[in-house]
Amino acid sequence: HPSKEMILLHTSKDSSSAEIQFLHKNGYIIQSLSFESAEIYMDWHPTNPNLVVFSTFYEDWTYNTFVYDGATQDLTSIEIENPFVKWYDEENLMVFRWSDSALDGSELFLYSNIDGTLKSTGEEKILDVTNIGEALLYVQINEENKQFEYRLEENNGKREFKWATPAVSNYSEWVIPSFSIVSPQELLLLNAKESRNQDDPSQKSILSKISLGDQNILGEVEEQSITCSPNANICLGGYTKDNWIQIEPLKVEKWIYLNE
Q: Checking DSSP bridges between strand 179-183 and strand 168-169, what pairing results, if any?
């Protein structure tokens, strides 16, 4: 969980089931759930660790979506058009209605957990929106300028910070750069140096620290996924997290060597 107080562990006894355990950071089990599913998607509320939305997929790719409240241990099934929903706030989930072409982005809707209604936000060309705790990170596509347009907006709407980066695609869809939340108002972000197709994994990316106040460019590293510590001093990078990334001064080195 973004609070770094709890861990969600997903295991499976067989190909058609999922076991979910909520672990305290000290190692003991707080709660556990089980689902019938071939695959499972989840989104954890960034500030309320009791709230998790799950979508369980079956072998024919039909799915069910559930909202789980750990405070009451209630598991509620909801009917929703897109299983890959995300938390907007404690009462609403974000639903992305994609265009016929993924390159055109999506329209953002809000699904109310209170009354089950769906309403448009008026936001279009959306590629992703993430609630980081005290702010929402919006990513939209500007196809004409081949740019990702970002907006970090405080939950109360009083402050926002906007910036743009070169867009990257894999020919059929846009590839959103990796980022890691380090506080409820701050994240570390990798972005491409130029607009291009994602066909060269050795390309360099720009690493920045983003807050509601500004963008602090830290330097260049190879394109990779990152997961960063809460103090934003260290990140683990790469598919297997075998790169140790020191932030200031910026330095990257292997810390795990895997025998294949």
A: unpaired
Q: Largest Cα–Cα distance in the chain?
A: 53
From residue 255, give the alpha-carbon distance in Å to each of 188, 237, 242.
20, 10, 6
pLDDT grade for 201, boundaries at 50, 70 and 90: low
CA-based torsion, 131, 132, 135, 140: positive or negative: negative
What pLDDT, on the 0 to 100 scale, is given for residue 199? 75
Query: pTM of the entire structure?
Result: 0.93
Alpha-carbon distance 213 to 24, whole Å?
33
Q: How many CB atoms lie within 10 A of CB 106?
A: 22
Which phi and psi (to 5°) does residue 112 adopt?
A: -85, 125
Place of tokens 């499976």: 12
Question: Tell me: the pLDDT tens digits for 141-176?
Answer: 999 999 999 999 999 989 999 999 999 998 889 999
Q: Which residues of 188-204 are buried (b: 16+ CB within 10 A; e: fewer)?
A: bbbbbeeeeeeeeeeee
SS3 104: helix
